[in-house]
Amino acid sequence: MATNKNAKNASNKQGKNDNTQKQAQKTEDKAANLVKEDKKTPQSTEKNDKKTKKKSSEKGKKPNIFQQMVGFFKGVYRELKKVTWLTKEELLQRTGIVAGVVAIFTLLTWIVDTGLGGLATLFLKK
């Protein structure tokens, strides 16, 4: 009976070691793949930079300042259409919350300032 337990324990330990070795090999493979990808990245960006330079030179001149301004304002208009605006009730509620928090902190600051001022006069009068 004791030999069966010892045999089971030995086989479990061997199985765990095999699993650990497999995991270590997988980790090494992943690390090797990441290194390969890192080496590929700068080459691909250099190629992309060359392509964009060719395209920009093929386009020719930039549009004049007025065309750029019109394009800018069209973009602003498109983005403002996407904004979710508050309703009047939500705006009033949130404004009230902000005003209340500001009033509370103003009151707390006044109390602390008055207390510290009183302490300062006590110490300075002596």
From TrEMBL:
Compartment list: Cell membrane; Membrane
Cellular-component GO terms for this entry: plasma membrane
InterPro entries hit by this protein: SecE_bac (IPR005807), SecE_sf (IPR038379), Translocase_SecE/Sec61-g (IPR001901)
Pfam families associated with the record: SecE
Biased composition (Basic and acidic residues): 25-61
Coiled-coil regions, chain positions: none
Keyword DNA damage: no
Keywords: Cell membrane, Membrane, Protein transport, Translocation, Transmembrane, Transmembrane helix, Transport
Topology in membrane: Single-pass membrane protein
Start-end of Low complexity biased regions: 1-14
GO biological process, one term: protein transport by the Sec complex
Complex and partners: Component of the Sec protein translocase complex. Heterotrimer consisting of SecY, SecE and SecG subunits. The heterotrimers can form oligomers, although 1 heterotrimer is thought to be able to translocate proteins. Interacts with the ribosome. Interacts with SecDF, and other proteins may be involved. Interacts with SecA.
Function of the protein: Essential subunit of the Sec protein translocation channel SecYEG. Clamps together the 2 halves of SecY. May contact the channel plug during translocation.
HAMAP family: SecE
Family per record: Belongs to the SecE/SEC61-gamma family.
Name of the protein in question: Protein translocase subunit SecE
Organism: Acetobacterium paludosum
Classification lineage: Bacteria, Bacillati, Bacillota, Clostridia, Eubacteriales
Gene: secE
